[in-house]
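job 3f2a | input accepted
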Amino acid sequence: MPEIIANGIRHAYRLLGGDGNAPPVVLIAGMGGAASFWQPQLDAFAARRRVLVYDQRGTGGSAREPVRDIEQLADDLLALLDGLGIARADLVGHSTGGAIAQVIAARHPERVRAAVLYASVHRADAYRRRVWGLRKAILQGLGPEIYAQTTSLFFYPPEYVAGHDQALAAVERRAAEGEIPSPQIMASRIDAILRFDIAAELPGVRAPTLVCCAEDDMLTPAYFSREIAAAIPGARLEVWPRGGHAYSRSHPREFDGLVLDFLGGQG
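job 3f2a | predicted structure (267 res):
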């Protein structure tokens, strides 16, 4: 992937697709932070829009730097957009990526035409601290390979895991061999999302917003999405009955259709 210095560090990114009649769509990955999360979406999105994907601070091909807070990750993305000459964009954020999108939509409204907050959170609570405390302990105690294997169990419904065992094993190997940051950097990312709380600022978001999640999401339960949608004026809420935390990967056609149609309606 090409590289650019943004907010003082090296970021790896890809800019693809060719429709210049609308702002680009930025696909923002979750806790793993790597652009590869969005691989199932790239063909469909790039066929209709210009698309930006990137590896966040500490992940993939970007600089292996710890994360101070979610606001720093938002500053990274704004600097990346500046470096690429993108004044305004549609933001599609998964999980932690949705938290990044919330910061930009709330504090830099001129940079956001529309937002999709997918399986995301706006605050932490006792459930999230339990889940991420456990995942952090797995990574630090058992290492990246076991962490990657448990990620599949957290991300997908049981029937999806049963039906895609070999494909998931390949994804887990790639993650363990390089995409997952060191335990120290990943711990900084986990700590950042557990400190994050933007609930009081959501009523000020003015960009058209789609909030979506699956009812069976173990990592970001649907009550977070319902709270986010209720707080943002005019937000649309879509809750799928099943699909887990990574609905865009377990049901890519349905996800792509919903998000692209929503963004296409914001011209």
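job 3f2a | The mean pLDDT is 95.
job 3f2a | closed
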